[in-house]
Amino acid sequence: MQTKADNSYHTFQEIINQPQAWQAVLQEASGRSSAVRSYWRPEETQEVIFIGCGSTYYLARTAAAIFQGMTGALGKAHPASDVLLFPDITLSQGVSRMLVAISRSGETTETLRAMEQFRARDSGPVIGITCYEDTTLVRMASISLVAREAHEQSVAQTRSFASMLVAIQALSTILADRPMSEKLLELPELGTALIQENLALAKQLGGNPAFERFFFLGSGPFYGLACEAMLKMKEMSLSYSEAFQFLEFRHGPMSMVTQQTLIVGLLSETALPHELALLKDMRALGAKVLAITPVDLSAERMDYQVVLPKGLTDMERGVLYLPVLQLMAYYRSLRNKLNPDRPTNLTAVVSLDIDRVSG
Ligand code: F1P
């Protein structure tokens, strides 16, 4: 299935080989669990805020949902720029907090400046989630989980995002004071099989010229992943793509559904019947539908489906939705005669001279 062209792009290799990076970060987290847990004081902490930019803000959204679902403690996600620019709202006085700062590079200006704001206003610990050890973020954090095997040549995040998500799933398990489940430790093996099983489907859908617009739907812990899939499709292929929670789609956005629309549903176990009903309604409007699903939907007449392995919870399964979504964006980029390694207008790190911006 792999072609000569695939071998000439970093993005393809980084997507295909990512389960190795997941494995490494699971080992990193397991080895540091007691050190990480030493910073967690649930009885003194009223909320945990997760921050990032672009891809890593979307990861923060999923992270806050998984953390809250697993620990029962309050988790919130903010774009780093809101913590930097609206601290009276995001870091309101009189609340004891922990900060989780997520950044592939560990050098994004907004994220570092948001960490400074936090340090200036709160006394809580800061946990870093990143891919590079020798960075400002790691130096500023109380403790960090570093996905060292997830470095990328490509600008668009793929294995870095997925590896930092695995780090977040492991972190939430540690803070929930639970052992790493067998299924969590099996994710790399499950991911490798999923990639091989669905490479052809991703190529078929990504390369299909009939699709002119893409909607990625995800609810609860899957909304942040739907946003990331939307961003990959934009960054790599310059395609029209948007992300919504499933039932939100009926409240206006479904007006945009055409016969040239592909709707990708990141289905959950928790809300499956409602999510499936929405997808059926959108098929009736003429959209084609790809269901990425924890259960086999062959009887439900989806146009396409990726059936995920059984035995994982909604809190554990998240990373398995990503490879097929990343591959779809990659193949769409090639179809649009673009370079997936070098998205238009983007750089790997956004560095700003914040202080130069005058009021
Ligand atoms: C985040 C970021 C992404 C963007 C692109 C480049 O940087 O700017 O928001 O989508 O992938 O990286 P980082 O703080 O995660 O290094």
Concise account of the structure shown:
The protein has 14 helices and ten strands.
Describe this structure in words.
- The chain is an alpha/beta fold and 359 residues long.
- The chain folds into two domains: 6-180, 3-Layer(aba) Sandwich (Rossmann fold), CATH 3.40.50; 187-335, Glucose-6-phosphate isomerase like protein, domain 1 (Rossmann fold), CATH 3.40.50.10490.
- The chain is built from 14 helices and ten strands.
- The chain has helices spanning 4-7, 10-16, 18-31, 33-37, 55-71, 80-85, 87-90, 109-121, 136-140, 159-175, 182-206, 223-237, 272-284, 322-335, and strands at residues 47-52, 75-79, 97-103, 126-130, 143-146, 213-218, 240-244, 261-266, 288-293, 304-307.
- Strands 2-1-3-4-5 form a five-stranded parallel sheet, with helices on both faces. The protein has a five-stranded parallel sheet with strand order 7-6-8-9-10, with helices on both faces.
- α13 links the parallel β8 (261-266) and β9 (288-293).
- The longest helix is centred in the middle third of the chain and has 25 residues, at 182-206.
- It is globular and about 55 Å long.
- The structure holds 1-O-phosphono-beta-D-fructopyranose.
- 1-O-phosphono-beta-D-fructopyranose is lined by residues 53-56, 103-105, 108, 111, 155-157, 231, 346, 348-350.
